[in-house]
Fold:
Amino acid sequence: MPPDTAAEPAYSRVMLKISGEALMGGLGYGLHPPTVERIAREVKTVHEMGVEICMVIGGGNIFRGLQGSAQGMERTTADYMGMLATVMNALALADAMDKQGLTARVMSAIGIEQVVEPYVRPKALQYLEEGKVVVFAAGTGNPFFTTDTAAALRGAEIGAEVVLKATKVDGVYTADPMKDPSATRYAKLTFDEAMSRNLGILDATAFALCRDQKLPIRVFSIVKHGALKRVVMGEDEGTLVYA
Ligand code: UDP
Structure:
């Protein structure tokens, strides 16, 4: 049978959360340019399908607040460093997307006007409507939060239909698939099921926000080539958590 070329994307506006670690490739720290470029290409493929894309990038490949505070730093200072790390990642990804022919705009929750523009919701909405990819940097702008929460928050604010959580594992499993070969992937779960099974899909604040706002989450692997497109096409990829 010929492929169904008339298939439409399942979403028109998505929030894509990419962890900092996903940008490291096989490195132990920092950015792996070929990986950043591949992610930019995958985003372009989805963008060409007419989907509006906004993104939140983590900073764990460079600095995490908890790591700094464990080494004796004041926690809020360490968290601000973590947020600044996300700005570096956002700039790298925006640059890679620009090179792919997309137009990316980085908007920061912390004022660094000489480098990136501040987050202003109507402006972000305008950019999305103009077909630009918007990258939200510096998390929520507040210490003690994570970029998962930034993704849930901005996703809800901007009217995304889903939060796509890109990780290194292709979904949520009944047990750790690295340790237990009998572990199976959940294709779908309700928020209540995910909570009662204590599956730790997003951090607690982000999860609660998505649940309250009935904003579905799809966990998938960004390491798996083409998975982002399959997710956006509504195929059985990763794990969907829904209200
Ligand atoms: N961070 C923060 N507030 C936020 C988002 C992030 O303080 O709203 C800090 C926090 O220190 C965190 C770091 O930025 O450890 C990097 O973000 P995250 O750990 O979420 O990155 P990821 O694990 O997704 O790479």
